[in-house]
Specification:
Elements (H helix, E strand, L loop, with lengths): L1 E6 L7 E7 L3 H15 L5 E8 L5 H8 L5 E6 L5 H11 L4 E4 L11 H7 L5 E7 L5 H17 L12 E4 H7 L10 H11 L4 E7 L16 H20 L1
Parallel strand pairs: 2-3, 2-5, 3-4, 6-8
Antiparallel strand pairs: 1-4, 5-7, 6-7
Amino acid sequence: MENVHVKKHIADPALEVILPIYNEGSGLEKTIEEIYSALSRHTPLRFIICEDGSTDDTKDVLSRLSHLFPMKVISSSMRKNHSRAMTDGIKAAVAPWLLCFDADGQFDPVDFRRFWEEKENYDILIGRRLNRAHGWLRIILSRGFYIIYKLLFPVPVHDPSCTFILVRSPVAKMLAPRLGEMSQGFGWEFIAQAYASRCSMKEFPIRHRARSVGKTKIFSLKNLPSIGYSHVMALFRIWLRTRF
């Protein structure tokens, strides 16, 4: 069951920032403040917060922040996982440009400036993380998956799993109904479907930092092998679907 609340209305924002959130209460205020400070210098914006059934104080923090920042909050009583939360945010968006972003503080929103300056030349602009601040196992598995991915989808990007993505809203809404095979692989699936649809895209280098607070519980040593296997199977299903 979902609840949707819109606070601090901004008429016709040029950009909406889609932010899936799960148990990020301790670092959420700092993350949203940093994103808003960096991006609002370039364009009026609104957050679309896709709260994914958090069990910490995330909902209380959002209730307070919703009076300070322009945002639409989509709150869920049950876990949907990252990709579904991101897709629900796309479906709820109304701005002409959407920024898919993560709430863990690992992206530096200052890097947004170049994306915004170049946006009229492409359908999709995606980040390429420099010096990824992930554990060694996750990086190794990601590179192995990338080799398989490129054989099936020779996309013109080096880091298709990155969820620092600026996209035209009509393009995102066209692709959204085709997503859902990878519960934790939004970027992989989004870029594969975009490539199959012949969308124009450009990759830009971005900084990548350690998590601002805590550690990931999704991409843990215990979960990585099963996530990798399920994503390989999903990748072949996506490939077959885009072939026929």
